[in-house]
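Journal club prep — side note

Before the paper discussion, L.F. wants everyone to see what a predicted structure for a comparable chain looks like in token form. Sequence:
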Amino acid sequence: SESTNEMGLCGSSPDIEVEAPDVDMGYAMRNAKDSYYYVTQQAKVEKNKMKYPFTLHEMNDPEKTKITDVPAEEVKWVDATCEYLAALDDWTIKRVQDNVWRSVMRPTIEPNVDNAVNGAAENVEGFSSLPYFIQSKAKRAARDKAIETSRKKSGFDKRIQDKMLSIALNNMIKAGATINPEFKPPKEEEEGKEEEKKSEAMKDKN
């Protein structure tokens, strides 16, 4: 459109629209465990604040279902309980989510997004005649928007937090905690599920 050309020449970037790619959450889950390190670090802080006896509720919300009791510091599941609390700490879980997204997911989707952006840019009238820095700025904005939309659309952040809580819960059980039978943890996400779906879909096509 003419307005796109005019805007470009004035120094603001034209809009390039590309579709946000799907996120392979199975791959994210398999590679999220390395970032559990941040949870174990924050767990040490949580342990220093802990008052005994302590009752852990789901999401650490007293209105929700009780998970387990920590009668004293000596019990073997105290560290894992503190890990559960650490996975609910906003700052800690944000570090986990950002780390998994940056180191695991972005490298898998960025090349496809870049290709899509370059293709879409060719269809923007007059784009190739714009100054290089404006072209770069427009492409970068389109890429960042598509990648951020993918993160939101996939429910990535919540699913990564659920994974961290699930690891903590399993650590509690391994350490001997008695889990309240009324507590129903979120269903464990299968790590290979998304690839299996894709391979099934390929079989159906053939």
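L.F.'s comment for the group: Strands lie at 54-57, 66-70. Keep this in mind when we get to the figures.
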